[in-house]
Write a structure and sequence with these properties.
A: 202 residues; Chemotaxis protein chec; 7-stranded antiparallel beta sheet; B: 165 residues; alpha+beta; 5-stranded mixed beta sheet
Chain lengths: 202, 165
């Protein structure tokens, strides 16, 4: 089991640097995408048990939006961004420069806006990681899902193959002037590969 | 006084014969909610299984056995029989097993839902048990309730009402 992999302090510190750099780059990407300055603040990174995610997003039956991508190459893993349904609508408003409360449902345009957000966040994080580790990492196109929290998380749970495993939680605030929406990303890397790569290049 | 439903997380199982009990597994995606109910004794079981099969033969005392469809089913059958349920009377109903990812290039190798359901069918067949009702596959999450009082099993998907299966 991956639980036994020593996920040490140094590795976590290194990943914090990567996350912070990645998210700063992502903010630049968003600004380019929407044509105005979107800032991303306070990227926090911590380790949490996989099974605790559902409670943090609400409950397993709550409506939520998930943005999911996988990455392949020298390192494989997955990134899931999951947020309560209401928060996703707020985020769409923010991205599309609409007054808060304008977006009432998730149609194809709303989904693709969020997909792009996931794509940018994921890619920038992975680029930072790839640069630091000297590795080649390619993200898949994002999948956007609207469903119950538990059902969305099943994707991660089933592919990670375990229940008690720990995942990386990356929290960031997307800000457009005074408006801000908090988003959580869950990064589920292949920890063994990650450790090896970072060791080799540190 | 009305009791709270007994909520089952990933890889958990519950068995009850108390008519005040309701067993529930919320938001099943590729996971399966497998229920076995003996309507005469009211002995009812619900399993929230995550993955198709145990990688290595787990002893049945291993708490992880509930995580897997194959060992979870075998284990639950033994447990409800031990409680006094009669195998030939058991009504088996299955909910879940969706393929949550419908993005191009991601579907086939990650379709755990279908593999879970295939394993459930095989395991039940080897135990000479029939599936009475199922709400499986597709691309949506589901919640399953088992009402011990009247042996009812219901399913609910996002934006819809709970209904019997």
């Amino acid at each position: 089991m991956i639980d036994n992999v020593p996920f040490d302090h140094d590795l976590l510190e290194m990943l914090k640097t990567i996350a912070s750099e990645g998210i700063t780059n992502a903010a630049r990407g968003f600004s380019g995408m929407v044509g105005r300055k979107i800032e991303v603040s306070n990227p926090a990174l911590k380790l949490v048990p996989l099974f605790s995610i559902a409670k943090m997003v609400g409950g397993p039956e709550d409506d939520a939006v998930g943005i999911y991508l996988r990455f392949e190459g020298d390192m494989v893993g997955q990134i899931m961004m999951i947020m309560p349904y209401q928060k996703a609508l707020e985020l769409v408003d923010l991205l599309m420069d609409l007054p808060q409360g304008t977006t009432q449902h998730m149609g194809s345009m709303e989904r693709s806006a969020l997909g792009e957000l996931g794509n940018l966040s994921g890619s920038f994080f992975l680029n930072s990681l790839a640069k630091l580790a000297g590795a080649k990492i390619m993200p898949s196109p994002p999948a956007v899902m609207v469903d119950m929290v538990g059902a969305i998380l099943d994707i991660v749970v089933a592919t990670a193959g375990g229940i008690s495993e720990q995942v990386l939680l990356m929290q960031a605030n997307f800000m457009d002037g005074p408006r801000s929406v908090e988003a959580n990303f869950w990064v589920i890397p292949d920890l063994n590969a990650l450790k090896d790569l970072l060791k080799k290049n540190s | 006084m009305k009791k709270d439903p007994i909520s089952l997380g990933l890889g958990e199982r519950a068995i009850s014969r108390d008519p005040d009990d309701v067993l529930v597994a919320y938001g099943l995606g590729s996971c399966l909610g497998i229920s076995m109910v003996d309507p005469i004794t009211r002995i009812s079981g619900l399993l929230h299984a995550v993955l198709p099969g145990a990688a290595s033969g787990l002893p049945s005392s291993d708490p992880n056995s509930h995580k897997y469809v194959d060992s979870g089913i075998e284990d639950m059958l033994a447990a409800v029989i031990k409680e006094g349920a009669i195998k030939s009377r058991l009504i088996v109903r299955i909910v879940g097993g969706a393929n949550m990812l419908i993005s191009p290039g991601m579907t086939s190798s990650f379709d755990i839902g279908t593999r879970n359901m295939d394993t459930a069918r095989k395991t039940l067949q080897s135990l000479n048990m029939k599936i009475t009702a199922e709400e499986v596959g597709g691309h949506t999450g589901r919640t399953v309730h088992v009402y011990v009082a009247d042996s009812r099993v219901t399913v609910r998907v996002i934006g819809e009402k709970e209904r019997d299966i």
